[in-house]
Amino acid sequence: MVEPVDARITDSYMKERLTNTTEPSATVGQGPRAIASRLPTDLIGVAGFTVLAAVLLLIVEITMPVARVAIGFPLLFLAPGYVTVSVLFPRDEPPARTERVPLIGQTLTVTGTERAALSFGLSFALLPLLGLLIAATPLVYTVTSVVGTVCGFVLVGTALAAVRRARVAQSDRYQFSLARTIDALYTAVFGTSSPVHTAVNVVLVVSMLVALSSVGYALVAPQDGEQYTDMKLLTEDDSGELVTADYQTTTEPGESMPMTISVENQENAEREYTVVVQEQWVEDGSGDVFNRTEHERYSYELGDGDRELTNGTVTPDAESGTVRIAALLYEGEVPESPTMANADQSTYLWTTIEEASGDEDTDG
């Protein structure tokens, strides 16, 4: 005989079944779209673009003007301001008056158009400050230092903005919408009641884009300002510092003269140099060299910004008279007969060879 089933057991069993069957529906909300909606896609996009821009400008070193403008314009005039705005305004709207506002909290509502305008404005304000930061460091003002400083600022700002948003409830966080931003910008430019106002807005926007693109290209162009190679003859002063003064102007026959050669590469690329040290006899009046003797050759392979100091000595062959000790710098191959005329750079110093005067015996 089959015993009747308790109705309470049946109800409990059915509730458990219903609960188990509804659990998967909770996980549906954890799909890719739901996860993407929680991520700061705009900040991820800015960080990814910044890394890509650094690779293309510093490692690949693209030279196409259009490509450099397309990369340099948003990197310089949009990204720094955008991450700053994102740090300052992580919410879609400010918290209610009943909520406790932190020390650095959002108290204003910022629309998409205002965020775009602030991004450009703050980028303009930040670039001179970043330039002053470069000037305050040992860095040289080059494409590498400019792009590296801007990219570093943007990536740090992106991380701070992401942390600020994560501390806001998801329902209150700012969510970037490309369609909404484009629609707001379109309305700001073309949503006027007068065709004249619309035409003025278009002209202003086009003029601003052209001007900013020109400045952006100038800042990230391959030409990094003045390019040069510098060579100097140095000597030590009484404090041991290397200076371009107080050279040894007299020496005795067979005596060696200390001389330090400085070669510095600021050509924005690696260079190979050779320095030829000569002793030259020069005719009085005409200044023509009638005899020359090569004493040393120094070879250098310097990267951009590198400087090499060579401590050497020169022993003049002349037994008397005044000779010119010349340093001739060549980039690449050295001619068969090195002269000051065919050298890329040259510098020299004069020295007089004199016999040491001894004390004569005056005793009778």
UniProtKB/TrEMBL annotation:
Keyword Transmembrane helix attached: yes
Membrane spanning residue stretches: 43-64, 70-90, 116-135, 141-163, 199-220
DUF1616 domain boundaries: 46-351
Alphabetically ordered keywords of this record: Membrane, Transmembrane, Transmembrane helix
Keyword Cell membrane set for record: no
Segments for region (Disordered): 1-29
Biased composition range(s): Basic and acidic residues: 1-18
Composition bias, Polar residues: 19-28
Annotated protein name in UniProt: DUF1616 domain-containing protein
Organism for this UniProt entry: Natrialba taiwanensis DSM 12281
